[in-house]
Amino acid sequence: MEDFHSEDILPVPKYRFEELAFESDELRFAVMNSKATSEVTDYYMRNRAFHAEFSQTHDDKYFTYSTQKKYLIDEVKDFNRNRILPLFITYKGNPKHIIGRISFFHFAFGGMRNCIIGYSLDKEEEGKGIMTKAVPYAMNFLSQFYSIHRVDAYILPKNERSLKLIKRVGFIEEGIKHEFMHINGKWEDHIDFYYLFEKNN
Question: Looking at the predicted structure, is the pLDDT value of residue 201 above 70?
Protein backbone atom coordinates (compact mmCIF):
# COMPACT_ATOMS: atom_id res chain seq x y z
CA MET A 1 0.00 0.00 0.00
CA GLU A 2 1.03 3.59 -0.53
CA ASP A 3 2.39 5.29 2.58
CA PHE A 4 0.29 8.43 3.02
CA HIS A 5 2.36 9.70 5.95
CA SER A 6 5.15 11.01 3.73
CA GLU A 7 5.33 14.68 4.66
CA ASP A 8 4.58 17.02 7.53
CA ILE A 9 1.44 19.10 7.02
CA LEU A 10 0.97 22.06 9.32
CA PRO A 11 -2.15 24.18 9.76
CA VAL A 12 -1.99 27.63 8.17
CA PRO A 13 -3.56 30.90 9.37
CA LYS A 14 -7.33 30.63 9.10
CA TYR A 15 -10.05 33.02 7.99
CA ARG A 16 -12.95 33.97 10.25
CA PHE A 17 -15.16 31.38 8.50
CA GLU A 18 -12.68 28.54 9.21
CA GLU A 19 -11.91 26.45 12.27
CA LEU A 20 -8.88 24.80 10.73
CA ALA A 21 -7.03 25.13 7.42
CA PHE A 22 -4.04 23.57 5.69
CA GLU A 23 -2.77 23.81 2.13
CA SER A 24 -1.03 21.85 -0.59
CA ASP A 25 0.75 23.51 -3.49
CA GLU A 26 -2.59 24.03 -5.26
CA LEU A 27 -5.45 23.41 -2.86
CA ARG A 28 -6.76 24.66 0.48
CA PHE A 29 -8.52 22.30 2.90
CA ALA A 30 -10.67 23.85 5.64
CA VAL A 31 -13.13 22.98 8.36
CA MET A 32 -15.69 25.74 7.82
CA ASN A 33 -18.03 27.23 10.38
CA SER A 34 -21.46 28.85 10.06
CA LYS A 35 -19.95 32.07 8.69
CA ALA A 36 -19.47 30.09 5.46
CA THR A 37 -23.11 29.02 5.23
CA SER A 38 -23.77 30.92 2.00
CA GLU A 39 -20.75 29.37 0.27
CA VAL A 40 -21.56 25.86 1.48
CA THR A 41 -25.22 26.18 0.47
CA ASP A 42 -24.17 27.41 -2.96
CA TYR A 43 -21.85 24.40 -3.42
CA TYR A 44 -24.61 21.91 -2.65
CA MET A 45 -27.25 23.80 -4.62
CA ARG A 46 -25.27 24.11 -7.84
CA ASN A 47 -24.27 20.44 -7.65
CA ARG A 48 -27.60 19.05 -6.51
CA ALA A 49 -28.46 17.24 -9.74
CA PHE A 50 -24.85 16.25 -10.39
CA HIS A 51 -24.42 14.64 -6.96
CA ALA A 52 -27.88 13.04 -6.80
CA GLU A 53 -26.95 9.80 -8.58
CA PHE A 54 -24.27 8.89 -6.05
CA SER A 55 -25.20 10.75 -2.85
CA GLN A 56 -27.59 9.82 -0.06
CA THR A 57 -31.17 10.89 -0.57
CA HIS A 58 -31.95 14.46 0.52
CA ASP A 59 -35.20 16.40 0.45
CA ASP A 60 -35.57 20.05 -0.61
CA LYS A 61 -35.02 21.30 2.92
CA TYR A 62 -31.44 20.01 2.91
CA PHE A 63 -30.46 22.56 0.26
CA THR A 64 -31.59 25.60 2.23
CA TYR A 65 -29.46 28.16 4.06
CA SER A 66 -31.03 27.36 7.44
CA THR A 67 -30.38 23.63 7.18
CA GLN A 68 -26.79 24.05 6.05
CA LYS A 69 -26.14 26.53 8.87
CA LYS A 70 -27.34 23.95 11.37
CA TYR A 71 -25.15 21.27 9.77
CA LEU A 72 -22.11 23.52 9.99
CA ILE A 73 -22.77 24.38 13.64
CA ASP A 74 -23.13 20.67 14.47
CA GLU A 75 -20.06 19.73 12.44
CA VAL A 76 -17.88 22.22 14.27
CA LYS A 77 -19.05 20.76 17.58
CA ASP A 78 -18.27 17.23 16.39
CA PHE A 79 -14.93 18.33 14.94
CA ASN A 80 -13.93 19.76 18.33
CA ARG A 81 -14.89 16.43 19.91
CA ASN A 82 -12.79 14.44 17.40
CA ARG A 83 -15.88 12.85 15.89
CA ILE A 84 -15.51 14.17 12.34
CA LEU A 85 -12.96 15.91 10.13
CA PRO A 86 -15.10 17.76 7.52
CA LEU A 87 -12.80 19.35 4.95
CA PHE A 88 -14.10 21.68 2.27
CA ILE A 89 -11.72 22.10 -0.67
CA THR A 90 -10.96 25.36 -2.47
CA TYR A 91 -8.15 26.60 -4.66
CA LYS A 92 -5.41 28.50 -2.88
CA GLY A 93 -6.08 32.20 -3.24
CA ASN A 94 -9.84 31.69 -3.59
CA PRO A 95 -10.86 30.29 -0.19
CA LYS A 96 -14.58 31.06 -0.40
CA HIS A 97 -15.34 29.22 -3.65
CA ILE A 98 -15.82 25.58 -2.66
CA ILE A 99 -14.88 23.01 -5.30
CA GLY A 100 -15.16 19.82 -3.26
CA ARG A 101 -15.28 18.13 0.10
CA ILE A 102 -13.54 15.26 1.85
CA SER A 103 -14.95 14.08 5.17
CA PHE A 104 -13.61 11.59 7.68
CA PHE A 105 -16.37 10.53 10.04
CA HIS A 106 -17.66 7.80 12.38
CA PHE A 107 -14.37 7.90 14.29
CA ALA A 108 -13.79 5.02 16.67
CA PHE A 109 -10.76 4.98 18.94
CA GLY A 110 -9.57 2.57 21.62
CA GLY A 111 -9.15 -0.92 20.18
CA MET A 112 -10.58 0.02 16.79
CA ARG A 113 -9.07 3.34 15.67
CA ASN A 114 -10.96 3.56 12.40
CA CYS A 115 -13.15 5.95 10.42
CA ILE A 116 -14.93 6.34 7.08
CA ILE A 117 -13.98 8.62 4.20
CA GLY A 118 -16.51 10.31 1.93
CA TYR A 119 -15.94 12.88 -0.80
CA SER A 120 -17.62 14.95 -3.49
CA LEU A 121 -16.46 17.27 -6.26
CA ASP A 122 -17.92 20.25 -8.12
CA LYS A 123 -19.31 19.33 -11.53
CA GLU A 124 -17.04 21.92 -13.20
CA GLU A 125 -13.90 20.35 -11.71
CA GLU A 126 -14.31 16.78 -12.97
CA GLY A 127 -11.51 15.35 -15.07
CA LYS A 128 -8.80 17.64 -13.69
CA GLY A 129 -7.25 15.18 -11.25
CA ILE A 130 -8.30 17.24 -8.24
CA MET A 131 -9.35 14.31 -6.05
CA THR A 132 -6.30 12.25 -7.05
CA LYS A 133 -4.27 15.01 -5.39
CA ALA A 134 -6.70 15.90 -2.61
CA VAL A 135 -7.47 12.48 -1.13
CA PRO A 136 -3.81 11.49 -0.46
CA TYR A 137 -3.09 14.93 0.98
CA ALA A 138 -6.07 14.74 3.33
CA MET A 139 -5.05 11.20 4.29
CA ASN A 140 -1.60 12.52 5.13
CA PHE A 141 -3.15 15.06 7.48
CA LEU A 142 -5.35 12.39 9.05
CA SER A 143 -2.34 10.12 9.62
CA GLN A 144 -0.33 12.94 11.17
CA PHE A 145 -2.92 14.29 13.62
CA TYR A 146 -5.28 11.38 14.38
CA SER A 147 -4.47 7.96 15.83
CA ILE A 148 -6.29 6.11 13.07
CA HIS A 149 -5.32 2.62 11.92
CA ARG A 150 -7.99 1.89 9.28
CA VAL A 151 -10.08 3.99 6.89
CA ASP A 152 -13.11 2.57 5.06
CA ALA A 153 -14.68 3.84 1.83
CA TYR A 154 -18.06 2.71 0.52
CA ILE A 155 -18.54 3.14 -3.23
CA LEU A 156 -21.50 2.46 -5.50
CA PRO A 157 -20.63 -0.28 -8.03
CA LYS A 158 -21.77 1.95 -10.90
CA ASN A 159 -19.66 4.94 -9.78
CA GLU A 160 -16.76 4.18 -12.10
CA ARG A 161 -14.84 7.41 -11.46
CA SER A 162 -14.89 6.92 -7.71
CA LEU A 163 -13.93 3.26 -8.00
CA LYS A 164 -10.90 4.16 -10.12
CA LEU A 165 -9.94 6.94 -7.71
CA ILE A 166 -10.13 4.90 -4.52
CA LYS A 167 -8.04 2.11 -6.07
CA ARG A 168 -5.56 4.61 -7.51
CA VAL A 169 -4.81 6.08 -4.08
CA GLY A 170 -4.17 2.71 -2.47
CA PHE A 171 -7.43 1.39 -0.99
CA ILE A 172 -8.12 -2.37 -1.15
CA GLU A 173 -11.49 -3.91 -2.02
CA GLU A 174 -12.98 -6.00 0.77
CA GLY A 175 -16.57 -6.92 -0.08
CA ILE A 176 -20.17 -5.83 -0.63
CA LYS A 177 -22.36 -3.90 1.81
CA HIS A 178 -25.85 -4.92 0.74
CA GLU A 179 -28.49 -2.15 0.60
CA PHE A 180 -26.06 0.00 2.56
CA MET A 181 -27.39 3.49 1.81
CA HIS A 182 -30.50 5.17 0.41
CA ILE A 183 -29.29 6.81 -2.82
CA ASN A 184 -31.43 8.84 -5.20
CA GLY A 185 -34.66 7.24 -4.02
CA LYS A 186 -33.69 3.60 -3.40
CA TRP A 187 -31.48 1.36 -1.26
CA GLU A 188 -28.19 0.61 -3.00
CA ASP A 189 -25.39 -1.89 -2.48
CA HIS A 190 -21.89 -0.45 -1.97
CA ILE A 191 -18.42 -1.91 -2.35
CA ASP A 192 -16.34 -1.69 0.84
CA PHE A 193 -12.72 -0.57 0.42
CA TYR A 194 -10.19 -0.16 3.22
CA TYR A 195 -6.79 1.40 3.86
CA LEU A 196 -4.47 0.48 6.74
CA PHE A 197 -1.99 2.99 8.13
CA GLU A 198 1.04 0.80 8.73
CA LYS A 199 2.84 3.45 10.80
CA ASN A 200 -0.14 3.94 13.11
CA ASN A 201 -0.09 0.45 14.63
Answer: no
In degrees, rounded to 5, the angle at the alpha carbon of residue 197 between the alpha carbons of residues 192 and 201 is 120
Binning pLDDT at 50, 70 and 90, where does residue 54 land?
confident
Residue 1's pLDDT band (cuts 50, 70, 90): very low
CA angle 156/21/8 to nearest 5° reads 90
Chain-centre distance for alpha carbon 132: 13
Rounded to 5°, angle at Cα 114 from 51 and 48: 10
What is the C-alpha separation between 155 and 54, in angstroms, rounded?
Answer: 9
Bridge partners, residue 91, by sequence: 27, 94
| Eight-class DSSP state of 146 | S
Strands, E assignment, 3-129: 18-23, 27-32, 84-91, 100-108, 114-121
Judge if pTM exceeds 0.85: yes
User: If you count them, how many residues does the chain have?
Assistant: 201
Helix (H) or strand (E) holding 151: strand 150-155
Between CA 98 and CA 189 the distance in angstroms is 29
